[in-house]
Amino acid sequence: MTLYAELHRHLGGSVVPRILWRYFQRQNPEQAGRFPEYPGFEEFYTRPRNTLDEYLELHTLVESVQTEETLPYFIYRLIRGAHIFENLAYLELRYTPYLRTSERLSQSERIDQMTQIVEIVGKASQVAEYPMVTSQILCMHSRLPYEVNKAIVDLAAQSQEYVCGVDLAGGDAHYAERLDEFIGLYQYARSLGLKTTGHLYETPDGCYPELLPYLMRIGHGIQIPLKHPELLSQLQQQGQCLEVCPTTYLKTGTLQDIRQLKVVFDRCFEAGVDIAIGTDNAGLHNVRLQFEYENLLTQDVINFKQLQACQDAAFRHAFAWPHTQDPTSLLTGLLKTEPKKTLAGKSQ
Questions:
Q1: What is the pTM of this model?
Q2: DSSP-derived secondary structure letter, 104
Q3: Model confidence pLDDT, tens digit, residues 310-326
């Protein structure tokens, strides 16, 4: 059995449609009234959007119900599905903890409550019956004030039992007017020894070379091989990895056809730049990681050798994978048996 690593999955977009709909039916009369039948909800929840900003608005639907009381409910079902249906051995969940705190509190009180949110997510992710290595990436957000984003970085540094890195999310078109601020926050994160990734070069509006030196991995980054291939040698020298999430670009209107990603993979492989394939928002897309693999293969975007290289890269660039080998190699060693010996000492 092959086991996989998922490096780019958002907590807000990870809830599969039927589980979210059932939750609304039982606990949220307002949303239940909007979607009395499941097919209508699934169509609304998973249909493509015209822009990344429009797509990201869907996160608010889930964030509003992912509270300290309900997070264990959603995370248990997420872990169960990832283990049983996706064969995940490693999962990084990313989210903005501030957006799971109570809106009834003041900003300073919400900042304090973030610690509790991280602990709840960390403990809920450790499900004995579905063993896998899990960790959190805390997302700064382009629409949150500096004080909150700095507190998120501080919390990541103080919570390394549960947290493996920091990210910047919220739509890459919104970074420009605060670019110096985000550079400073990444410098601060690196000074604290934190590992870093960031949503960058996802869309043509999100190309900020000034941020690249501070990232160990690049969330999406597809516009680099598509529009700025001159940067690939820099990425290779710095050992950076792209987190490519194929279905996302169709859902956000960034690409019109998944076969447009062939240029991304071809140029990255030619330049020696690693790619890890992710789902991004498995629930919003109603897909699992293996579907992303299969779709890339059947559309001739990559071949099996390249797929294996991407799967290996995911473990190699995982921020919290505790082993030097991928799980398949570890299992092979555990399950390998020596040839039986005969009484004469010869192998049978």
A1: 0.90
A2: T
A3: 999 999 999 999 988 87
Alpha-carbon span 168 to 260, nearest angstrom: 26
Per DSSP, the residues of 282-293 read: HHHHT--HHHHH
CA distance readout (Å), 105 to 68, 98, 109: 14, 11, 6
What would be the CATH architecture of the domain defined by 4-317? Alpha-Beta Barrel (3.20)
Angle formed by the axes of helices 17-27 and 71-86, to 10°?
150
Task: Tell me the torsion sign for CA atoms 192, 133, 148, 102.
Answer: negative
Q: Say what angle helices 304-316 and 261-271 make with each other, to 10 degrees.
A: 70
What does the pLDDT look like over 4-51, one tens digit per residue? 999 999 998 888 788 888 888 888 887 788 888 888 888 887 888 888
pLDDT at site 14 = 82
In which element (H, E) is residue 72 found?
Answer: helix 71-86
Determine the pLDDT at residue 150: 98
Domain ranges of the chain: 4-317
Q: What does the block give as tokens for 23? A: 């939750």
Evaluate whether 95 touches 163 at the Cβ level (below 8 Å): no
